[in-house]
Amino acid sequence: MRTAIFSIALAAFAQLSTALPAPDASAAAPSAEKRDITHLYICDSSNFQGRCQNLEAERNRCYTLFNNWGDTVSSLGPDWGTTCTIWENNDCQGRSIGGIVSPGITNLDDAPWKFNDITSSYKCS
Asked: Hey, what's the signal peptide range on this chain (predicted)?
């Protein structure tokens, strides 16, 4: 008799456990590796013309421009809500222009910038 009751209880538990919903993966805690990403849109001609690229940037990290972008930027603009600084040398060194916000700078050759074809690195926050 005890065996029959135990078998019935075990069968009921098995059915109950298979009916429970699976854990929701999206409800898990955010990954510690999640990065805070923004963008800086750069062009090699003024007024956002010519060759352009939307660069992905982790906030508060310095980036050196590669792939033929160093010393060629003539207009640039960050995402809304982002502030960027550009530098004349690699590794965010040398003369700089800070406080660049959306919509950006349409002509880096204009006063007071006079930074056309000089940008080599940048950092956004």
From this structure: 1-19
Cis peptide upstream of residue 112 (ω within 30 degrees of 0):
yes
pTM of the model: 0.72
Q: What is the dihedral of CA 48, 53, 54, 56, to 10 degrees?
A: -140
Mapping DSSP to helix (H, G, I), strand (E, B) and coil, where does residue 17 land?
Answer: helix
The 10s digit of each residue's pLDDT in 27-39 is 444 444 567 999 9
Backbone angles phi, psi at 32, to 5 degrees: -70, -15
For residue 52, the cross-strand partners are 43
**CA torsion, points 111, 113, 116, 118, in degrees to nearest 10?**
150
